[in-house]
Design a protein that fits this description.
alpha+beta, GROEL, domain 1, GroEL, 3-stranded antiparallel beta sheet, 19 helices, binds adenosine-5'-diphosphate, binds magnesium ion
């Protein structure tokens, strides 16, 4: 038998293939370089990036996820790093830059270990051990917190709002966030349950950020439907309807050929009677306010106004649910069945002009289980930034209470963890010890980066901070504005433990995933373009 002389082509000739060490090196380099790109944005002194897209549009931001989304990242491993930021954003809404920097650093250190001849399975194993130990340690070093600790919760909110350019009103926004959470938090057999969706954060341009207000109830971005209706109702009894206050269109559209003018009149009278009846049903329930998810016929509006009822139509479904939670009313889908028991209550329902638009406020609800925050700001940019800050504040408090714990920021938690992790590494020994040490060192990238952003000798600050921790001061971290090692507790730099737990696990997962790859096969360009019709495959595009 002759041996096969011709190599068998499995891949197209244009396909690129990198294997073994080359593949690993390429992936690590790509992942590390995206993480390096966002590194300088970390913390309150983080720098902004100016991003110019292919059409020339400019975005200026220091938000990690935004930067990674805007960058036209090509390399698959770099794209995987971008996914870390997305996951972090979805899971906790903060700590995205931290997670990305950590993933980059874990890979960089893994590259060094590979160069020293340590096998990747050993590195992966060491990293895994280190990650689960870190999460265990995080719980150990955390401070406990409960719903009643409003001062501490306010500090969490303030830290979460770091870097969002709304410095002068931060205190007020933090207070609002804490109060809002207090309304919607439920205690279920000892644990606190918070659904951040129960806080509706609306924004309206105009006024200033300090006009931002918490409504003990809900604000609906709609006008009262009829000008003859009251603009303010006290001691409101509120009907919540998800049925139209109209006569069903099928009944009027039905093809009835009426030739006799008298019959025509009778038909019209019949319809008016039905419409009046709808308004009467609402009145008979005892309601003086109605929020309707669907339409309200002109004639029904007329009668409701006549009965002194304030009505709003085409309210969003999500707002209806919040109105129900805030007022205690039940959403009714059949007007004929509405009774006084279904009605919600509020001290005041009123229409007010906010900026350019009119909005309806449902205020002074008793024990509302959903509330609104109306964020204000003089310009579009300011109001958007204030809204993002408020989102972060609310989410920060919610994630803190989810685990009922927080850690010290400014790199303090990472320094403490690194120290404890090194002790653990010794107990494990062997080559895994090297990987666990590398993990510990990777955590220190956070305080090191913060120190660099303060424009100080980062190594010196880090050494000083570490020695504080060695003598038992776990609250010491980097005071970025003064460029010194400082007590994060008295500075009020505190963060939810959950941010760190999520960042550590997401970063470890992606580092492991990238390390496991030893073969990159990139499809050749020509093979894809030959199957794509001209015009980008959109079909029938005209220019
Ligand atoms: P991320 O996307 O990871 O949340 P940020 O730019 O928000 O990135 O920076 C978060 C880091 O900045 C955390 O490590 C946090 O402890 C730190 N930090 C926030 N405020 C301060 C402060 N006033 N002083 C020192 N460090 C701070
Ligand atoms: Mg942040």
């Amino acid at each position: 038998m002759n041996g096969i002389t011709q190599p068998i082509l499995v891949l197209s000739e244009d396909a690129l293939r990198q294997t073994g060490k080359d593949a690993q090196k390429a992936n690590i380099t790509a992942a590390v370089s995206v993480s390096e790109m966002v590194r300088s944005t970390l913390g309150p002194r983080g720098m902004d990036k100016m991003l110019v897209d292919s059409t020339g549009d400019i975005t200026i931001t220091n938000d990690g996820v935004t930067i990674l989304n805007e960058m036209e990242i090509q390399h698959p491993a770099a794209k995987m790093i971008r996914e870390v930021a997305k996951t972090q954003e979805q899971e906790v809404g903060d700590g995205t830059t931290t997670a990305v920097i950590l993933a980059g650093q874990l890979l960089k250190k893994a590259g060094d270990l590979l160069d020293q001849g340590i096998h990747r399975t050993t590195i992966v194993k060491g990293y895994r051990l280190a990650a689960s130990k870190t999460i265990e340690l995080l719980n150990e070093i955390s401070q406990k917190i409960s719903l009643e600790d409003t001062q501490e919760l306010k500090k969490i909110a303030l830290t979460a709002m770091t870097g969002k350019g709304i410095e002068s009103s931060k205190e007020k926004l933090a207070e609002i966030a804490v109060n809002a959470i207090n309304y919607i938090a439920c205690k279920e057999n000892g644990t606190i349950k918070i659904n951040p969706d129960d806080i509706q954060i609306e924004k309206k341009q105009g006024g200033s950020v300090s006009d931002t207000e918490l409504i003990e109830g809900i604000v609906v971005d709609k006008e009262i439907v009829h000008s003859a209706m009251p603009k303010l109702v006290k001691n409101a009894k509120i009907a919540l309807l998800n049925a139209a206050l109209e006569v069903k269109s099928t009944e009027t559209d039905a093809k009835i050929s009426i030739t006799d003018p008298e019959k025509m009149q009778a038909f019209a009278d019949q319809e008016s009677k039905m419409l009046k009846n709808l308004a009467e049903k609402v009145k008979d329930s005892g309601a003086n306010v109605v929020f309707c998810q669907k339409g309200i016929d002109d004639l029904v509006q007329y009668y409701l106004a006549k009965y002194g009822i304030l009505a709003v139509r085409r309210v969003k479904e999500s707002d209806m649910e919040k109105l129900s939670k805030a007022t205690g009313g039940r959403i009714v889908s059949n007007v004929n069945e509405i009774s006084s028991e279904d009605l919600g209550e509020a001290g005041i329902v009123e229409e007010k002009k906010i900026g350019e638009d009119k909005m309806v406020f449902v205020r002074e609800c008793k024990e509302p289980k959903a509330v609104s925050i109306l964020v204000r700001g003089g310009t579009e940019h300011v109001v958007d930034e204030a809204k993002r800050a408020m989102d972060d504040a609310v989410l920060g408090i919610a994630s803190t209470l989810e685990l009922s714990s927080y850690v010290y920021g400014g790199g303090a938690a990472e320094i403490e963890l690194a120290g404890k992790l090194r002790d653990y590494a010794v107990s494990i020994g062997g080559k895994e010890q090297l990987a666990i040490d590398a993990f510990a060192e990777s955590l220190e990238i956070i305080p090191r980066t913060l120190a660099e952003s303060a424009g100080k000798d980062a190594v010196e600050l880090l050494v000083e901070a570490k020695s504080k921790h060695e003598s038992g001061n776990k609250e010491y971290g980097i005071n970025v504005s003064e460029g010194k090692v400082d007590d994060m507790e008295s500075l009020g730099v505190v963060e939810p433990t959950k941010i760190k737990v999520q960042a550590v696990s997401a970063a470890t997962d992606v580092a492991e995933m990238i390390l496991r790859i030893d073969d990159i096969i990139t499809a050749g360009k020509s093979s894809t373009s030959s199957t794509t019709p001209p015009g980008g495959g959109m079909g029938g595009m005209n220019y």
